[in-house]
Known about the structure:
Layout lengths: L1 H13 L12 H20 L1 H5 L8 H26 L5 H9 L16 H22 L5 H29 L3 H20 L11 H6 L7 H19 L9 E3 L4 E3 L5 H11 L3 H14 L1 H19 L1
Antiparallel strand pairs: 1-2
Phenylacetyl coenzyme A binds next to helix 2, helix 6 and helix 9.
Amino acid sequence: DREVLEEAFQVKVDAETRIEPKDWMPDAYRKNLIRQMSQHAHSEVVGMLPEGNWLTRAPSLKRKAILMAKIQDEGGHGLYLYSAAETLGITRDQMYDQLLDGSAKYSSIFNYPTLNWADIGAIGWLVDGAAITNQIALCRCSYGPYARAMVKICKEESFHQRQGYDIMMVMAEGTAEQRRMAQDALNRWWWPALMMFGPHDAESAHTSQSMKWKIKRSSNDELRQKFIDATVPQAEYLGLTIPDDQLAWNAAEGKYDWGEIDWDEFRNVVNGNGLCNRERLETRRKAHEGGQWVREAALAYAEKRQQRAAS
Length: 311
Ligand code: FAQ
């Protein structure tokens, strides 16, 4: 019966045996994975927009080519993730509808505007840096298709993080105006980047069950601390100041102590009232509607080919 099946499932998870699409799984496991994976996919495709804002204004041909490749990678990540989520019995159209009708979330970080070129550096350095910290852990997720998708995604995120840090290095070592822009970008992106890891563990609705099922391998607070510990020395190397006056090395615990996130801001952005929420969803809606004829044409062509092959 159900209880026996659930126990056997947990034994499998505990033994680190990957769960594959055709294996039995509890409904709640399937539902939770669809939720997390689809939101992850939506984050990738909405995440293309803040950087897309600077493609036509990149400072050189080389920077433009690099940025274009990065944004295309993000589109690709969205596609792998939608495909991986489809193995759980939901279609990409259904997931996309949930994004557009607001019932599925995407990462809060993509509701902030990109105001100057240094923001592109800060996104690569901090946003991709935070994304990798989270995604390295997800390479060991219990669900096979998700874990395997993460491996390639992490390799690409690593390039994204390096390109962002490279932009920050050039600007931090540049003119006084460039340094000012780099510091301004760090000031605006630091706290939103920390919010990417989600609420504190004690407030996190899904963490304890997701950890038990090994969907998540580390908690929100553990990953956030790991990111801070790795990133503070990188800011020091750039000669930039992290906008947190409580930030201090805690030698006894071998980690940084730091201030508190503005959780009102986090909730506000997650609930749809950030600076760019409406604009982001509107842009995605227009792109989806604008692509309707392409989807119809591709289907009509596939049908025609099938008919030709059958006759
Ligand atoms: N924004 O119980 P928890 C990228 C929601 S990286 C919005 O802790 P969970 C790469 C959460 O969904 C970004 N909502 O939830 C890139 C839940 O709501 P629900 C994407 C947030 O799932 C870089 C509720 O709060 N990465 O795209 C946020 O256990 C540069 C309660 O929270 C991933 O999605 C937030 N920051 O932990 C692209 C990684 N935090 O669903 C372009 C995979 C929490 O009940 C440019 N996801 N919420 O309505 C995860 O690891 C997890 O889902 C967490 C949240 C850690 C995000």
